[in-house]
């Protein structure tokens, strides 16, 4: 399992891996929608009478069945993405621990969403900037991930391993040599 975080990964494999994981993340939301909407339909009979914020809150809340499934699948995809980012950082000669930014982004955005949905936070002109905090943080992490995707790796072996092969098979993405 630790091989996921060891070695180096080239640009093509990084991009391929992250695209696969983002697709899996999107697919992970499908059972969440199905479970949440069916639960609310059984409870209310007509979803048009349900407040959108209540539906959204229950859909992605850690306290709902759909939310629990969503978070289990998301954490699995997040763990795989961390491995890809750490190995890509190794290819750039940087420590893989910088990949922790990906987890921080997840925790900040999800934690903030839970706080907004359950705290009774009311946005107004004077407080609207508060809602932008996770967006700004996500933008910074997005620039970091973009850097990982486009920056050329080191052309010679470094302390993290040999130059990665120029192939992007799933086995290469998931596990180091």
Describe this structure as you would to a colleague.
This protein is mainly alpha-helical. It has one domain (2-174). It has seven helices and no strands. The radius of gyration is 19 Å and the shape is globular. The model has no long low-confidence stretch (mean pLDDT 75).
* Residue-averaged pLDDT: 75
Note the total helix count: 7
* Contiguous uncertain segments of 5+ residues: none
Let me know the number of strands.
0
Q: State the helicity in percent bands.
A: 55-70%
Q: How many domains make up the coordinates?
A: 1
Distance between the termini: 13 Å
- Sketch the major β-sheet: none
Note the beta-strand portion: under 5%
The whole-angstrom Rg is 19 Å
String of helices and strands: HHHHHHH
Oligomeric state of shown chains: single chain
Overall geometry comes to globular
Q: From the helix content, strand content and strand pairing, which structural class follows?
A: mainly alpha
